[in-house]
Amino acid sequence: MRAGLDWLLLGVLPRWAKTEINLRGIMISHGVSLVIRPLYRDGRSKSSRDSLIVTATAIVASWAVVIGSGSSGASAGRLLPWIIVTSHVFNVYYESKAAKPSRSVINGAVSAAILLVLESIHYSQELEVAGNTWLSVFSISKSALLLVFCLFVPRGNDESYKGLPADRQHTGSVIELLTFLWPRKTFRLDSLQRKNAASLPALPAGLRTAALTERHQRLASQRAAHKLSSVLLRDYFGPLALQSILAILSSLAVLGPNLVTYRLLQHLSGEREGDNRDTIFLVALLGASSLLPVILTAWMRWLGSSMIAIPMRYTLSALTYQKVLSLPTIPVSPEDREAKSIAILLYMNALSARACSAFPICYKVVGLLTQLVSTTAVLVTLVGWKSVAIAIAAALSITPLTTIFMKRWSALLVGIWKLMSNRSAILKDALLAIRQIKLSAAEPAWKQKIYRIREKEVKGYKDIAWLMFWMVIVGNISPAVLSGVPMYIYAWQGQLLTTSVAFTFINLFKELQSKLWAVPQELPRIKAAGTVQPNWMLF
Predict the structure, then answer these.
(1) Where are the domains of the chain?
(2) Which of 205, 247, 295, 502 is close enough to 367 for a disulfide, judged by CB 3.0 to 4.6 Å?
């Protein structure tokens, strides 16, 4: 049973369980099932299975009794996380002893992390009681040790290919995966400095070009009537879904610093009662919440490069060269055959480039939409839907003006580039006239041409400077100015406008306005790649 279903049971079971005895029986059965499941999978003898089942049941039941007795007044709802995590730990331990890939490592790590959070929240209330200090620290330490165990257990055995170490991103421990420490056992700094390709690690079998090409062709043969973009979407659906999930989490994590700042301002202004310990905790939480989006963004980019962009690019490149090499022999001149091969190669490379440029950035659209919805929900909670509706309308009213500015900016740059090209051509003609001793008679005309072009260039730079001025005004000052209108309406409705509400609203509104402007910039790139008409038969 996976960790997600475990925590779904954690939220559902305590509501309908009638007695604590029945609930403990369900929890112990769940824990024993996770322990004995590998025994049936490996086909052990009946006597060996029976003895191990009895031993596992006794261990899990004893652990439940110890936890229940050690925590004074522990309820069934608090005992269930311990049973789940302990079951995952036993499962991880068995798989590691059997020298098999530990499929339960990530489930155990997630369960142990949530357990640590639950225990920290529960016992943080009892740390101030003199008699419960050491008991609280001991209980939190137990859950932390379970998390450390799951973090440092390898997810699989090290692999090698033709004597070279394989990439450990799929076999290293969870802590190596989260902190990008897995390359230290495969990549050597001296080998990279000497550019010794023979000592570099080999890719796993599933990421080699032959395997990727075979998988793409097998999938494409089943969807012959579909476009290339739909085939690639089906082929890389797993990494794209994982990247989208991380984008959603990152968009929600971006709200963390603003929400923590809101609570911190409430403490500092006296709106909410609290002592110095709460303030110090909020300051530490502010730093941690600011670090989380950075980590998630790094993970999204890594997934986009290692699991989507690079495999997709090399797969399509291999298919392109296979197509060119398999062209039928036509009785034409070698020059015509080479020209046709180059034309096909360039056309297919252009198609693959359009597809590869869109898929690694799909997560941006998902993240933008998630952040728009979540930010709007927080703003509605702060100041009400009327003020938020006016704020969004004001932000959208500026969007056409920004679009006009960007088009005007592009047109001015193109005009200046053309003027620079014309000036270079005129100077070239003037130098040629000097060499032919023809400049003296037409020298005023040449000067007039150069002066006119230079005057147009200066005028173009002046227009760009004015346009930059207004873009800075609209982009940097308008969010602060427009955010004052909803604040006025909020205060006009008779609500108490506090410091925490004002500062939090202004920060969130600036982020919301920037995201509203970013959506039209990302959608055309994905739409252009999605209109790739040729089907997979071209490849």
Answers:
(1) 3-152, 208-258+291-383+527-539, 384-497
(2) 247
